[in-house]
Every structure is written in structure tokens, then in C-alpha cells.
Amino acid sequence: MNDEPLLQISLPGIRKLKSGKVREVFDLGDSLLFVASDRISAFDCVMPNGIPRKGEVLTQISHFWFEQTEKIVPNHLLAKANAPLPPALQPFAAQLARRSMIVKKATPLTIECVVRGYLAGSGWKEYQKTQTVCGIQLPPGLKESSELPEPIFTPATKAETGHDENIPFATAAQLVGADIADRARDLSLRIYNFARDYARKRGIIIADTKFEFGLFNGELLLIDEVLTPDSSRFWPVADYAPGRSQPSFDKQFVRDYLETLKWDKTPPAPTLPPVIVARTQAKYLEAFERLTGKKL
Fold first, then answer.
1. What is the pTM of this model?
2. Considering only CA atoms, which of 125, 150, 128 is closest in space to residue 140?
3. Alpha-carbon distance 61 to 78, whole Å?
4. How far is CA 251 from the centre of its chain?
5. Is the C or the N end of the chain the one with fewer CB within 10 Å?
6. Within the chain, what is the greatest distance between any pair of CA atoms?
């Protein structure tokens, strides 16, 4: 492949606050700088090589959805996708191009706001045992990947390492307060319903997604990334068939490849071969193009 992945982001003179599996957060004084790298993780391990342009896709899809949903909920963006960088960041323009967001210093809620429209992942596993998802009773007879009668809000705790843990809504209300929990649930469902209908017309099923909200001057804002292939399950409409797992627009090629290896899913992770990198990159770019109608 011609383009090399950007795995490490260094901005000398700009204080780094946090380095996640994919994103770096820098302190700009009165705002924050989010930069999405091309790192990719699977089974909670970061792969030694990344997916070229993945960070651009995640950032530009987030910019797209923030703009689409700002009539539903305010968000943390301080600059649009095509806004020029401030002078202090101009020396780093090559690193930051299309993969950075300048945002308000909101205080994140201590819960993940998950909306599920289809039965997959941990929800499908729970349903098979108890006919519930996060304690919410569902009808009998649903299959893997079945569309739910209506989308459900299933909050989770945030885990710095490992998996987030699903929690009942009552626990979420205890963690963030009943009023904030109610507002976060209502907004999550409204955003999901809007995005699901929009994406379906463009050939993508949003099976489930994870939103983040934060408080800024007492106002609840949509923050972090939104409705990307990393924070959501995207399935192609054309291939959808309940009763099995679905092809997807995210890390499927990576996960499927890793499952063929004798690897115990603990660090160090194996290097991904070029064909897996190329196919994964193509899926990320396809998701962007279908949603936005543009090429990146």
C-alpha cells in the first residue's frame, strides 16, 4: 500500500493529556485537541501495525454526524471539519490534517450511552440465556441479528482497560443523577433513530452504537466520536439476513484473521498482513463514502 499508517502523534510544546487505543488528547488551554491515529485494536489489544487513513475516516464521519445532529443536541465542536488550524498547531498540519477536532472542555458522564436496534454481540448472548438485554425483557423467538421491536437504551460503565460492563438504567441514574440519565437516554434514542433511518437509505444498517455525553457550563453536549465504524456496528443492507452474524464495515477482517491464529489474545498482538490491512481500510473508506456521498 502506498500510504503509511500514522501510529504515533507527537506535538512538541503541546501538552498531551491522554493516549487511548486510537485517540490522543492534547490540552490547548481553553480547549482540547482530539487526534485520531491509525491504530487498530481487537480483543482489547492494539495491533503493532495500523490501518492507513483510519483516523481520517473516524474523524470525518464524526464531523459529518455532529453537523447532521446539531438540531437534536448541541455538541462539543469548536471548529468545523474544514476550518483552518490555529497558529500554534500550524507546524503540525501534516500530522493533523483531516484527523483532528478542536473541542470544548466538557466533563464526560461516567456512563456509556449504548443504543441497540438489533440483537448482536453481548446482547445476543444475554438474550439466549434470559430473553433479556441489560435486564430489558424482549419477545421470544428472536434470532441472532434480529431487528428489535424498537431500539433500546442499554447503558454501560466505562472501563479504562478491558470491556465496558452493561448496567441497568437504574444504576446509570444513580451514577449520573436521574435527570441527566433521562436526558441522555432520550437524546441517545432520538439520535439513533435519526441516524438509522438516514444510513439505511444509503445501504448501511446501524445495528447498535455508543454515544458519549459531557457537561459544559451546565449543558449536556454530545462529545467524543459519534456513529463511526469504531463506536457502532455497521452492516450492509444488501447482505442482511437474521439468524447469523453479519458482514460489517469495521474490524471484521481483523477479527476473522486473528481467530485463525494460535494467539491467546494477550499482548503482544501479531502483525496484520497487507491483505488484511488493505481490505479493512477499504471497508472504512466505503463506510465514509456511503454515509457522506463523498470520497475522502
1. 0.95
2. 128
3. 16
4. 12
5. N
6. 59
